[in-house]
Amino acid sequence: xxxxxxxxxxxxxxxxxxxxxxxxxxxxxxxxxxxxxxxxxxxxxxxxxxxxxxxxxxxxxxxxxxxxxxxxxxxxxxxxxxxxxxxxxxxxxxxxxxxxxxxxxxxxxxxxxxxxxxxxxxxxxxxxxxxxxxxxxxxxxxxxxxxxxxxxxxxxxxxxxxxxxxxxxxxxxxxxxxxxxxxxxxxxxxxxxxxxxxxxxxxxxxxxxxxxxxxxxxxxxxxxxxxxxxxxxxxxxxxxxxxxxxxxxxxxxxxxxxxxxxxxxxxxxxxxxxxxxxxxxxxxxxxxxxxxxxxxxxxxxxxxxxx
Length: 307
Fold this sequence. Notes:
Low-confidence stretches: 142-166, 284-296, 299-307
Radius of gyration: 19 Å
CATH superfamily of the largest domain: CRAL-TRIO lipid binding domain
Largest sheet: 5 strands, mixed
Mean pLDDT: 82
Number of strands: 7
CATH class of the largest domain: Alpha Beta
Distance between the termini: 34 Å
């Protein structure tokens, strides 16, 4: 992607901030503009002029949803923290500094999760936005760029430590499907929620995810995927790697190669024993959620990785 395209979009956005509030600074970030240019190009609409409406829609949406204030919204932070225990997910960094999210979809208590979604649908969606915003901040500003240019995370990619080939720095999502069954297909409210969240991600958090890995996929996954794939953007579908339940060893090997063994739970072939989200204890143990952390981030997420 040419820097001239990025600069053109920044300048177009700067002339289009009328009516914007908190998103005025976000909309002119070079790192943000790079991602929206990449997303527009993936949709066969390359160039700053094509990316601008996409960018401005997200800016207005961010203002409407008060996304910039979410990282300091104590009730939302507490809700999202409790949601991890129900949806069985955790976010930290892999060995390369990429955001890594692991979610145990197959181990969900479907009755409990469905009840939560039915009772608090707006809060569940806002919690999802909060998690995405944490990842987005890490990519767009977490590389150390003081002016929000993304630093080492610019364009979702960064040079390797030795100055070698570029490495994809976008987030890695791992969905452990062990235990997935036909009951998942019957949870219509969860499928509707999945469609809502997928559309939201594509519209307002483009090009933040580089790879999606599904492991231990049973035969029923083919039926489930036939249902939900229509709700998933084509660009997202192209990032998906699926390993059958008979290929868990192969999947774990691929994850070690992709993310590094030292940051993976032992259940995924890594060297971290008793790790989230396989061992749920958010209150006390080191490496869990620091109860004194207002943002609800793990110590490893804040520091950039595990020792």
